[in-house]
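User: Could you check the structure of this?
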Amino acid sequence: MLSALFSLPFVAVGVRIIANPLANVFQKQLTHRSAVPLFVTCATYGFLTLACLTVLNHFALTDLSAVFWQNMLVCSVLGVLGNVFLVKATHLGDLSVLGPINAYKAVVSLLAGIVVLGELPSWLGLTGVGLIVAGSYIVLSKGGGSTWSWAIVNQPEVRLRLMALLCSGIDGVFLKRAIQLSSPGTAFFFWCWLGFVMSLVWFVTTQWRTSPAQATILARKWPTYLALFVCIGLMQVSTNIAFSRMQVGYALALFQTSALLSVLFGYRFFNETGLIRKLTGAVIMVTGAVLIILFK
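Assistant: Sure, the predicted structure tokens are below.
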């Protein structure tokens, strides 16, 4: 157990678990100060691309196959869409609810991984994923004896979060294929660069008139933007490392234990309610993660 916890992929998972909810906090803070989700996404990709250029000689950028580019392009399109949906969802909804919804990404990626990568989970691994989903069910219930209802899906923030997890759950499978055909570092560079190009084109063609106001917000709130850039960078690097050593479905299931931090951050920074119920669900999710760690 201890040797597994301190192995490289699980250290990467630990970094991802911390960085993801922190990034959501910074995204929510920025959008509450009138930052446009698409601009936030574009700026994030742009900064990370510039950061990659400083160490460009460490990436293998030549002799990449056509299959690599196909997987990377699909991954990038889905990644940009997922990030924009996610930032918009965090602006509208509670972190303590939207974080646990992300648990269903593990189910999406498990199914996609079976079809695209031929990754077959064990029964105990499936049990772990099931506990993570069950824990999210408790978090999404309203308390006071009421349970989760499909009416929740009618909430705009929940629909956006579901769209984001669908995109990111599928893009993880294509990202892993790209990593298998190159390296975690090379895939990270092209994830940043292609994401920046696509989000910039989208922003210029649809929201260019907001750029002066968005640039002003960026200059005024640069510490928050910088913190977001660092968190997203750490999150994606750790994701690539985990994907290079683990099944996509298992890795994404483990990532969802960050719901525990999402609940605490939502309570601490945004005064969100239902702490005990949400913590109970988050603990069940962590139990599922332990099963995956032990029997992956």
